[in-house]
């Protein structure tokens, strides 16, 4: 198996995708917290775009969550997390791409940061950012609700695929906001499958995030400058 290290900060959505995938594969790993080193020369040497996660497997260093997740699935034993069937694999990749482009930005950057991350730092939420995000989040939830057959527990088929692990941390942070809780109440299929995955794995995602909710993410002060939309 070799030595595996995940670099990131604990509350990070993408870091938690990698931690969930490694856990599902049964791969033990060390977590290296970069919270106090974000943007430092050591961090930028690992990730030139100043983001996390980064995976180190016996000196093979990789960034970008999609690349890491597919590498982990192929490089290690354990349950196969990518379907062989071309159409199922395409649907898995469609969910991953949709998460990156339509779910994560509005749910994490525009809602969760304003509700959960900034207030802890003494930064007032920008209600215009939240208001603009809500219809986009509603659309995403409607799409997911309609796509899930009643009783189907996973996004693609009857087994967990990478799509479920990509979706879980974002849906977890949605479920921690008042707006998210309200919206999820009218989405019984999403609720039944554990917010886009499976209840047990959703609990695992929550367990990763909950200890850090309410703790300051100091480097997020910079997000107000770099990432926050201006209306
Ligand atoms: N495209 C990257 C996105 C990673 C990303 O945005 N990570 C966030 C944390 S969830 C981050 O590093 N944020 C730090 C920052 O923007 O300063 C991936 O797929 O890994």
Explain the overall architecture:
The chain has 231 residues and is an alpha+beta fold. Helices cover 55% and strands 7% of the residues. It is built from 10 helices and 4 strands, in the order βαβαββαααααααα.
Task: Please describe the topology of this protein.
Layout: E1 4-8, H1 13-25, E2 30-33, H2 41-46, E3 54-57, E4 60-63, H3 65-75, H4 86-117, H5 127-147, H6 162-175, H7 178-184, H8 188-192, H9 199-209, H10 221-226
Q: Poorly predicted ranges (pLDDT <50, ≥5 residues)?
A: none
Q: Write down the overall mean pLDDT.
A: 93
| Integer count of domains | 2
- The amount of helix comes to 40-55%
Major sheet:
4 strands, mixed
Specify the structural class. alpha+beta
The general outline is: globular
CATH structural fold name of the largest domain? Glutathione S-transferase Yfyf (Class Pi), Chain A, domain 2
Bound molecules: glutathione
Distance between the termini: 49 Å
What's the oligomerization state?
Answer: single chain
Radius of gyration: 17 Å
